């Protein structure tokens, strides 16, 4: 017996309610409820009586070497070494950021059959992009289709190794009354694709748009179904793009891939530090370089600060690429522990190149850049600064110090200011002068 009725579902986390709600009690997002038809059936669960052939884990063969290399090393690294057969990857990103481009470039090099199913563009549009990207791939098949049954039919006919679904928001299953793009369709299409991929052992890259709140529609909903969630990020006014893993069942989530968008497609950036430091002014107050660890790789980044007198009552604090709340804390520490008067000034902090720093290891560079801008004194541009700043103004140790120092030495930096707790881990081999100070006040006194 089956009947259908209306329910309201949170488009973020999938929470279901019989009434429309303004705020989701589960994930606390606002205005996220959409009306959907839910089919319910009341049947007893069945436990099958068939005979099964079960394998011990030792008898199951699976190899790391089975991974399909896309030939784009930045992409493969983010995935943990390539596409795992039978895995489902959700690729999210803002409209126009380059998701289709990335998916096409990454799959076109595979020397096995690829099916690119698109509900967004026509075959001709895909062809034009492929020509612009100069793709040369005899095994790349295109299907302009939104009906998932037809796509699965084509998959059965073709037996591809990799399938791209561009995008999940355009796909639908005919068994459901809901229109494409609804939570139910997105969830059911993803679940069917996942099931088929595991059974038939092909990899699927599902492209998903990011909603205005900065999330792939129904992220919580899809996250647990897929093996990996990777996010393609960038700023519209910069040509470079960053690929980040949010979840990965087959690799680390800390890896990032850096690309630059050109007319002929995405190019890999093998040495991101050089790129991010390339436009640095020679000697300007308010500019400090730090070494951040992104995944397994150290990346040098320029922290810029601008401090200006505030003419209105309430001073402005704006940060781009650095956590706003962390900035407020650091400003309080600067004022209270290092005697840097910032309470009546506007403070702007920017991480050059539009990148985001999440680690506290950048604290020292942020504080120093602010102090440098306020005092109009330059911090030597051959110096990098690494360290977390505590509420007492103390400089706390960070992880991977050796890697960070080596990257700086490689790019010609002469001095590194590091946390005192880290000095023992640094090998003297790199020809970079290591200095450590106990607290923020000493750093600022010595450098400015
Ligand atoms: N002729 C061109 N020259 C240079 N760059 C181009 C050209 N055409 C497109 N691009 C770049 O490619 C981007 C669009 O790439 P793509 O279509 O892969 O993005 P998408 O994320 O799939 O977009 P959508 O959300 O619309 O599907 C543009 O924003 C632009 O940066
Ligand atoms: Mg696209
Ligand atoms: Zn919710």
Structure description:
The protein has 448 residues and is an alpha/beta fold. It is built from 11 helices and 21 strands. The strands form 5 sheets. Strands 6-5-7-8-4-9-10-11-12 form a 9-stranded mixed sheet, sandwiched between helices. A 4-stranded mixed sheet has the order 13-14-16-15. Strands 2-1-3 form a 3-stranded antiparallel sheet, with no helix packed on it. Helix 3 links the parallel strand 5 and strand 6. Helix 8 packs across helix 9. The longest helix is centred in the middle third of the chain and has 18 residues. The relative contact order is 0.09. The mean pLDDT is 88. The site of adenosine-5'-triphosphate has 12 residues, from helix 2.
Describe, in short, the structure shown.
The chain has 448 residues and is an alpha/beta fold. The protein has 11 helices and 21 strands.
Percentage beta strand: 25-35%
Estimated helix fraction: 25-40%
**Overall mean confidence score, pLDDT:** 88
Helix count, DSSP H or I runs of 4 or more residues: 11
Give the C-alpha Rg: 26 Å
The largest sheet is: 9 strands, mixed
């Amino acid at each position: 017996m089956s009947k259908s009725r209306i329910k309201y579902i949170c488009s973020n986390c999938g929470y279901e309610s019989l009434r429309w709600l303004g705020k989701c009690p589960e994930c606390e997002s606002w205005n996220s409820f959409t009306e959907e038809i839910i089919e319910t059936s009341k049947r007893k669960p069945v436990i099958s009586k068939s005979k099964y052939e079960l394998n011990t884990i030792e008898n199951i063969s699976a190899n790391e070497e089975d991974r399909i290399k896309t030939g784009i090393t930045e992409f493969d690294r983010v995935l943990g070494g390539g596409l795992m057969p039978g895995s489902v990857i959700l690729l999210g990103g803002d409209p126009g950021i380059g998701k289709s481009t990335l998916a096409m470039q990454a799959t076109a090099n595979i020397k096995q059959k690829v099916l690119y199913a698109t509900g967004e563009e026509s075959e001709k549009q895909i062809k034009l992009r492929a020509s612009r990207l100069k793709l040369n791939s005899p095994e790349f098949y295109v299907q302009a289709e939104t009906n998932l049954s037809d796509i699965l039919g084509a998959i059965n006919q073709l037996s591809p190794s990799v399938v791209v679904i561009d995008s999940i928001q355009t796909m639908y299953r005919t068994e459901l009354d809901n229109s494409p793009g609804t939570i139910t369709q997105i969830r059911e299409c993803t679940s069917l694709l996942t099931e088929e991929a595991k059974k038939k052992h092909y990899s699927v890259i599902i492209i998903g748009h990011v909603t205005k709140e900065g999330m792939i529609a129904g992220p919580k909903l899809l996250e647990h179904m897929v093996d990996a969630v990777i996010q393609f990020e960038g700023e519209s006014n910069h040509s470079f793009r960053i690929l980040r893993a949010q979840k990965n069942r087959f690799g680390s989530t800390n890896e990032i891939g850096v690309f630059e968008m050109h007319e002929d497609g995405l190019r890999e950036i093998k040495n991101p530090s050089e790129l991010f430091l390339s436009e640095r002014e020679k000697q300007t107050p308010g500019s400090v370089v730090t070494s951040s660890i992104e995944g397994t790789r150290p990346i040098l980044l320029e922290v810029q600060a601008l401090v200006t007198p505030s003419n209105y009552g309430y001073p402005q604090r704006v940060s781009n690429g650095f956590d706003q709340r962390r900035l407020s804390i650091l400003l309080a520490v600067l004022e209270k522990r290092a005697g840097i008067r910032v309470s009546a000034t506007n403070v702007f902090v920017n991480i050059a190149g539009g990148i985001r720093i999440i680690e506290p290891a950048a604290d020292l560079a942020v504080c120093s850049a602010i102090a440098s801008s306020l005092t109009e004194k330059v911090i030597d541009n051959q110096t990098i600064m690494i360290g977390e700043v505590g509420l007492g103004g103390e400089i706390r140790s960070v992880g991977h110090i050796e890697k960070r120092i080596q990257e700086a030495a490689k790019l010609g930096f002469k001095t590194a200011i590091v946390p005192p707790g880290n000095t023992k881990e640094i090998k003297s081999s790199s020809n970079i002068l290591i200095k450590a100070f106990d607290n923020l006040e000493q750093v600022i006194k010595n450098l400015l």
